[in-house]
Amino acid sequence: MSARPIAHLSRRWSFVAAHRLHVDSLPAEQNREIFGKCNNPYGHGHNYIVQATFSGPVDEATGMVTNLADLDAFAKAELLERYDHQNLNTIKPFLTLVPTTENLAVEVWRIFSAYPHAKLTRIHVEETGNNAFDYFGEGEKEVS
After folding, report:
1. For the chain, what is the domain count?
2. Which SUPFAM superfamilies does the entry link to (predicted)?
């Protein structure tokens, strides 16, 4: 019996959200020095693009790593309904965590790592045309 080939599937979703980069324990001037215009007291928004990559054996019957309809339903319920048209500063865990896109990528990893039908291998979050962040689960506890 031959082993089933492993394929890598990447899927993209987009959402609009606002945030303000600010550390409460730092003086106002230091926040402005560190975060610049991203420290605007009224916040600012981005059109985020999230790309999740999953790996798994190609199913012999369907020829797929996972069913895209299942994956899209999961993304809608767990990512888009939570973040689209929201102020990230008002959503857990960003009530206590600076809502940088680096931290957002880690949180998106935590969301998609719960997807039961394929193994998450990468999260890619685009904040702007110039800024994109990748997270591969480094530091995350392995789920067995």
Report:
1. 1
2. Tetrahydrobiopterin biosynthesis enzymes-like
